[in-house]
């Protein structure tokens, strides 16, 4: 579904992403891991149109989408969430969800004045969709709560819910588990798995929690120093000498041997 070819992003003389190539298969939950400063979030930002690449290209279902702005990618079904949730804090959870669908009749002054029936009808449909999302995510108890009052984990669920308000093809999740307690993290994981299996969502996720990655992701891609270091199952990644060295600064072969 997504193919990244020789992608690079330079800030001054520093390459945050350096000749990175990878593929994300349709219907997969792909994990993206690596030490701090590996270039993971910058890679997400380039794919999602937040940053323009310095070199290389990105393909979505064979179409070159390199450098397209986020709103154009949104229209093509490519969405991303952020490590810090971007909710409308003074609006309720339901209202946050209802804001997502584009080109609503109520946003046009002409329709608001002269087509009130159309506005009411569309708003009712969007509200119904929002309530379905709220039920799916099991957050009905906070549906009318101001989003700014939610916990960190609830805000992450809301961000996930916003991707459900449109026909997403692929969702990039940036540290969806950061700052989330274990109970809510399991709820988020369950929702991701259900979206993948029941609705065919494709995910790519940056995460540092290896247990969470191991539960959800196959394959797992490892980045280090701006490029792709390894790819495989979580067990293969955990046993990879280059990955161990990238994370710990030393490989297994350099570990001191304990004599019997």
From TrEMBL:
PROSITE patterns: ABC_TRANSPORTER_1, ABC_TRANSPORTER_2. Keywords: ATP-binding, Nucleotide-binding, Transport. GO terms for molecular function: ATP binding; ATP hydrolysis activity. Residues 2-250 form the ABC transporter domain. It comes from the Bacteria. It holds the Pfam family ABC_tran. One of its GO terms (cellular component) is plasma membrane. This is ABC transporter ATP-binding protein.
